Amino acid sequence: VSNETGSTTSEGNGSNDSESSNDSGSDSEEAINLRLNAGLSGEDANTLAFTTPWMETVEDETKVTFDAFFSEELVPMGEEIRALQDGTIDVAAPILPTYNPDLYPLSDVAMLPLKSSDALIAAKAFADLISSDVELQDGKTFTDLEYGQHGMKALPVQPVSQYTIGAVDQELKTAESLQNLQLRTGGRAHEIFVQELGSSSVSMPWSEEFEALSRGALDGTVRSVVDYKPYGFDEMLTNSIEGLSIGHFPLVWLMTEEKWDGLPEDIQKVMEDAAYELAESTVKRDAFDESVEQAKADGIQFTPYDELDQDAKDLIEQASLRTWEIWIESKESEGLPGLETAILWRDLIIKNGGEVFDSMMELE
Amino acid sequence: METLFIILFILIFLLLLFGMYIHSILLFVGILGLVLLEGPGYIVNFLQSDPFIRTASYSLTTVPLYVLMAQFIVRAGVVEDLYSFVYNISRGRSGILGILTVLAGGMLGAVSGSSNASAGAFGQVSVPQLVKRGYNDGLAGATAAVAGSLSAVIPPSIILILWGVATETPIGAMFIGSVVPGIVMMLTIIVIMLFLLQKNNKKKNEEVAFTKEELPISRSIIALTLTGLIVFIVFYGIFAGIFTPTEAGAVGALSSFIVALILGKVNMKTLSDSFADTVKLTSMILMIMIGAQIFGRFVSVSLLPRKIIELLSTLIEYPILILIILSIIYFLLFMFIEGAAVIIMTAPIVLPLIVEMGVDKIWFGVVVGILCTIGLLTPPVGLSVYAVAGVSRISSEKIFKYTLLYSLLIALVVIGLAIAFPGIITYLPSQM
Amino acid sequence: MSDNFSKIYQFFIYIKKLGMLVSGFAVFIMMFYICLDVLFRNIEGSISLYAYEITSNYFMPLIVFPAMAFAFEKGMMPRIDFIIGKSKNIKFQLFVSICLIILEIVLMLLLIFYGFQYFLTSVDSGLAFTAGGTNYPLWPVILLVPISFSLVLIEMVFLLIKNIASKKPSFVVIEDKK
Ligand code: NA
Ligand code: NA
């Protein structure tokens, strides 16, 4: 159940005492203390790019203070909705929707492989997706279908920077070099992609991943380069591909609609604006560039996508397209608007400067 | 707020004295604390899902699997023969058997990341052998528990991985940094054990006369070969990258099952007995973990660790003092709260303090790892001791009497050395 | 103790042993399952058994919960025997042990009540885990939680009756004859 665990910086100590958050009044003059839960660690790149600055903005501009809990200290991942409904926490920022496809079946659309994109493109596209008024099914938007049906108010969090393949002692250049590997994946879309490449997809928690990579029980991992150092993979991985985007790991901010509606309008506006403004922040993209520089300095060899052999590029394009097709098929067979969601996401990625393979443009 | 804590603390001690189940104390005080802090509605979510979610954990598979492995090994009879063999060639010096057990603990530590699983295995395998050859119950149990606890210090270590990700400390560097303290800890354990053994034998006031144990050469060869084979399969599999340390639990259990099968020691009775011993231990460990989880939730919600550590930061000019106080705080937290929970609730608050003081993050991570290991040996929440007590049927108080001494001395020696000579941790990683 | 008490308790022992066997077989099968997963993974281009998802979500609860009452019966749950064991005053000992058993019953009632609520929620919301794109329902294993704590509750009630009837403090219904 719990896939990630970590910790926090010392936010959340703004309140003098832990007065119950239930007495938050409607008058914006009154101090409101909210209990915020993040499944990720307080040192995590996503926390530093979203949760911390978002809380700071809200604390600066309103009377709201937060008691922040990180690394599943209070609520395990996947349990956020119940915890929000029961009042165990007031805000979940962020949740990791792809870990619970039973609750959020469409959110992993963001993990579908693209041709190229970066953290900023993905953040803007995801913010557009959350605020989109395109009706996907029965007059419902993406946010209605995914979060509204659970009675949740959702705000966008920047997705994780683009994923790529990292491998141990395996130069990634030819089509063959991408096959017969044992690669760790963290979601269904990436599992399909790896299988379509002709490799094996392995799932395990990160605490196992470290040992598995260091002993060779795994040949590599499908992750963003920003994860290499925090999880210690920078010491093991030797090769990676640059300029490829095997999708983005989505993150979402949630609060119950009931609790949200109880907040004064000016606070709602600050909270909402802060989230949408962070979608324009370059922090994640800069952190990604830094991570790549660091990884190169540590001796990880990056093959630029353009320098891959043609057969490798063909294989990646073919596997990417098949991933989209299989993903859409499986969602449609569950009665979900898989095709409409995929097309909406594709168009938002392109609108914000990303690229998909030509064959994906033919999806209608 | 402070009064609440004092009252609850007294309550814990009273309930302990009255002999309430450990898991019930944690559960009861955790629920009471949460209700008093936040009102009765606040426990709902935790009580609903925590028991299930705590249990549905992949890394905990090592607990039943390592214990099952030990069951098969013991029932195959090879351990008995192995200890007899060593007893004979060491001419009856029982100290050698204890040393062998501790060294085996270090070896198992190189493939297992979990102390509880290893302690359970040693309780099964070694305790009866040690008791048979002159160790009193408590000392035998304690030796198994401390030998098992080496698994959390000698890499790989689940607890160091957890700390590494929580604080962005390089995990590989901490693994290398913990090698020397692991060896120091092993030596410390051996010295303490020999001392306790001698004292124990003096008290009995009789020399246990050495009589060579009956053991045909063929059986020694079989015992050595088959044990060697299991060890080889597990080590080779992990270091050749065929499976992970967690999966090694399953492979090791299967190998020992096959060994027991070859030796003709498997029948419905042994299978049923092995199952019974394995699952009752696993259920007990998990029941305590569930209680510890709820208690941990209360400590988290109370923000108490945050407040204590903020208070500490006023002493920033005296870094050594802070380190000593922090070590004591961790020692106490690990006494009462389960290890992973302590790390998650303290890492975020301790880290900025550590960084501000300019303390090496690798050094600090290894120190916390050692303190966490020690916490598995201390009452009231000493899971390694309960694991040994559970499989060996020795009362946990008897074992705690010795492990408490072990843990205080290990803390004093190993943590003391680490503070006085940080190089014993930081030198190796700096050579990477 | 009356014959009826013994008879009913004998039947209950049988139930708990059944639970133990379910848990035991779950460990045994998990052992093979993980080994098979390792084997398949190391054979090129093969299928995955999703050992990580299946073991954590299905095997672990199956190992832990059915055997829970059995563990209580065998006196596995640790407690520190200071006062009850050492005090000479049997009446005081008996009073304390009865209080503790009642407290245990209350705790079990809470775990059963909320565990059952969680089970209802899991059915209601279709709580599931995913492996290889398939959703596997969690309600069957979540149901194990209130069931297993109910068995513990029954064990505690037997223990309470025994303590009251025999006027001697005890934490196991049938003493271990070592
Ligand atoms: Na270890
Ligand atoms: Na402890």
Automatic annotation (TrEMBL), chain B:
TRAP C4-dicarboxylate transport system permease DctM subunit domain location: 9-418
Q: Where in the cell is it found?
A: Cell inner membrane
Q: Where do transmembrane segments lie in this chain?
A: 6-37, 58-76, 96-117, 138-165, 171-197, 221-242, 248-266, 278-298, 318-351, 363-389, 404-428
**One GO cellular component term noted in the UniProt record for this chain:** plasma membrane
Keywords on record: Cell inner membrane, Cell membrane, Membrane, Transmembrane, Transmembrane helix
Single annotated GO MF = transmembrane transporter activity
Query: Chief subcellular site?
Result: membrane
What is the topology of this protein in the membrane according to its UniProt annotation?
Answer: Multi-pass membrane protein
Q: Report if keyword Amino-acid biosynthesis is assigned.
A: no
The cross-references to InterPro entries, in alphabetical order and at most eight, read:
DctM, TRAP_DctM
Q: What is this protein called?
A: TRAP transporter large permease
Species of provenance: Oceanobacillus halophilus
Q: What is the lineage of its organism?
A: Bacteria, Bacillati, Bacillota, Bacilli, Bacillales
From TrEMBL, chain C:
Query: How is this protein named in the record?
Result: TRAP transporter small permease subunit
Keyword presence, Cell membrane: yes
Which residues belong to the signal peptide in this entry?
A: none
Question: Which sequence ranges are marked TM in the entry?
Answer: 21-43, 49-72, 92-116, 136-161
Q: How does the record classify its membrane topology?
A: Multi-pass membrane protein
Task: Report keywords, A-Z.
Answer: Cell membrane, Membrane, Transmembrane, Transmembrane helix, Transport
Q: Which part of the chain is the Tripartite ATP-independent periplasmic transporters DctQ component domain?
A: 30-157
**Any one Gene Ontology cellular component term annotated for this protein:** plasma membrane
Where does the protein end up? Cell membrane
